[in-house]
């Protein structure tokens, strides 16, 4: 009965969804492409072939990047596999194009009405569905079970905040989690929270973001630019809305922006410069962030305008997609976006894989396990606020021994926690064998 009410609500919301997509398409045109796919209407043919059709849903950019390691292992474990790749955001879809091979298909995630979900499952007929990390929709889960499609939550995580929210909607959340075929959690804490909602947790495999390998060419280019930089480069990685303004306020109170002047509490004063690199998490904010720093009186050089070398400016703005390895190669250390405002943090594993230590604020609940592991390894440093993070990061940038130690700790973090993607691929193969 309760899901029927939910289904009615999602059906009634369809005109609003289309309107929202058209508005978003003004800034991000990809949202306007193939809009009917979101409602279960397709123009491209369904994949054909003898190998299993594996449906992988990676809602956004972060999940799509994390899927790279999993897909590598899946293609090895399932020869001839065909991929049905779905997304909910434009950044996810854009990044997902590079993961496709001949015979694969990429479409939008169906909006969670009974009709759209029915049409999606009937048209493509996947042998198994894999949902990345947190992305659950009640009708998608329930109708997959009814259609005999084993639907699994992989690299699964659930924060305390998300658990509390789900428990407030337990009438909808519990049946959804219970209807999953299997859940493979990132950590024991995630597994416990997922089980509180009735999820069938079949294993704790770790986080296969640790299995990801940075793009070697981009990383090498960033390292070359780092070597030529006039000052050590401090990156604000995946900064979120409001955090750049927080940074400007801290700098205004304590020090000029370019070059940053660091005055430690010791009697002697050391004046040393820092080159800022700001990489916002969401591309629709690139223009706003550039305007924010320009209005504050600083010169801004956007990555899209650099050419062969970075342009001299107070602030470098990373306004490109798919180049995080280049940015981390360019930076000696990074501040973790999303952790200074109450937004739960961002993934710091990619920074560690590039040997970049991270200074993080108090709000890392979306990536609590990775943040704890990184802090214990000496690859990340918890700070009370952005001002403290800036002080500690700036100090480390001018302490060669401490910086080298933290960079080595960051590189070692990934090596110590690899293997989750392989374990997940083996589990997927086992499910397909049992269901065939």
Q: How would you describe this structure to a colleague?
A:
This protein has 18 helices and 14 strands. By secondary structure, the protein is an alpha/beta fold. It folds into two domains: 2-10 and 27-206 and 419-435, 3-Layer(aba) Sandwich (Rossmann fold), CATH 3.40.50; 216-416, Glycogen Phosphorylase B (Rossmann fold). The protein has a seven-stranded parallel beta sheet with strand order 3-2-1-4-5-6-7, sandwiched between helices. A seven-stranded parallel beta sheet has the order 10-11-9-8-12-13-14, with helices on both faces. Residues 257-272 have low confidence and may be disordered.
Topology:
Elements (H helix, E strand, L loop, with lengths): L1 H11 L1 H14 L25 E5 L3 H17 L4 E6 L2 H7 L8 E4 L5 H11 L3 E5 L5 H9 L4 E6 L3 H9 L1 H9 L3 E4 L2 H9 L4 E4 L11 H13 L4 E7 L3 H12 L20 E6 L5 H10 L4 E3 L12 E3 L6 H7 L2 E4 L12 H5 L4 E3 L7 H10 L2 E3 L3 H12 L2 H17 L3 H16 L1
Parallel strand pairs: 1-2, 1-4, 2-3, 4-5, 5-6, 6-7, 8-9, 8-12, 9-11, 10-11, 12-13, 13-14
Features:
436 residues; alpha/beta; Rossmann fold; seven-stranded parallel beta sheet; 18 helices; globular; Glycos_transf_N_sf; Glycos_transf_N; membrane; Kdo transferase activity; 3-deoxy-D-manno-octulosonic acid transferase
Number of strands: 14
Q: Roughly what is the average pLDDT, rounded to an integer?
A: 91
Structural class: alpha/beta
Inertia-based shape:
globular
CATH architecture of the largest domain: 3-Layer(aba) Sandwich
* The CATH homology group name of the largest domain: 3-Deoxy-D-manno-octulosonic-acid transferase, N-terminal domain
Cross-sheet strand order for the largest sheet: 3-2-1-4-5-6-7
The tally of structural domains comes to 2
């Amino acid at each position: 009965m309760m899901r029927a009410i939910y289904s009615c609500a999602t059906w009634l919301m369809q005109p609003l969804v289309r309107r929202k997509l058209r508005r978003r398409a003004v800034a991000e045109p990809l949202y306007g492409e193939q809009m009917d796919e979101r409602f279960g209407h397709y123009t491209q043919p369904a994949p054909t072939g003898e190998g299993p059709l594996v449906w992988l849903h990676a809602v956004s950019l972060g999940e799509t990047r994390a899927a790279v390691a999993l897909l590598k292992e899946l293609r090895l474990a399932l020869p001839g596999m065909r991929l049905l790749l779905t997304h909910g955001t434009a950044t996810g879809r854009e990044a997902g194009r590079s993961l496709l091979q001949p015979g694969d298909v990429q479409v939008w995630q169906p909006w969670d009405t009974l009709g759209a979900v029915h049409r999606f499952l009937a048209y493509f007929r996947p042998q198994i569905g894999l949902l990345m990390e947190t992305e659950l929709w009640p009708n998608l889960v329930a109708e997959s079970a009814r259609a005999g499609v084993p639907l699994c939550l992989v690299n699964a995580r659930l924060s305390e905040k998300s658990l509390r929210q789900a428990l407030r909607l337990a009438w909808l959340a519990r049946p959804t989690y219970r209807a999953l075929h299997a859940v493979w959690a990132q950590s024991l804490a995630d597994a416990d929270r997922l089980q509180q909602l009735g999820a069938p947790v079949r294993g704790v495999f770790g986080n296969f973001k640790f299995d990801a390998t940075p793009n070697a060419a981009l990383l090498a280019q960033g390292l070359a630019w780092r070597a030529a930089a006039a000052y050590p480069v401090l990156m604000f990685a995946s900064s979120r809305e409001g955090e750049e303004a927080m940074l400007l306020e801290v700098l205004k109170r304590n020090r000029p922006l370019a070059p940053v002047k660091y005055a430690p509490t010791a009697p002697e004063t050391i004046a040393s410069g820092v080159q800022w690199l700001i990489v916002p998490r969401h591309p629709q904010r690139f223009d706003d962030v550039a305007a924010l720093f320009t209005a504050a009186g600083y010169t801004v050089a956007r990555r899209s305008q650099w050419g062969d070398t970075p342009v001299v400016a107070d602030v470098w703005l990373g306004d490109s997609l798919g180049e995080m390895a280049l940015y981390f190669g360019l930076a000696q250390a990074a501040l973790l976006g999303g952790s200074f405002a109450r937004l739960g943090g961002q993934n710091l594993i990619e920074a560690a894989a590039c040997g970049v230590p991270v200074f993080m604020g108090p709000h890392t609940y979306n990536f609590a396990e990775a943040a704890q592991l990184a802090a214990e390894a000496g690859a990340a440093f918890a700070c009370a606020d952005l001002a403290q993070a800036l002080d500690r990061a700036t100090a480390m940038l001018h302490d060669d021994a401490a910086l080298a130690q933290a960079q080595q700790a960051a590189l070692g973090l990934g090596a110590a926690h690899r293997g989750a993607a392989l374990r997940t691929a083996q589990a997927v193969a086992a499910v397909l064998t049992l269901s065939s």
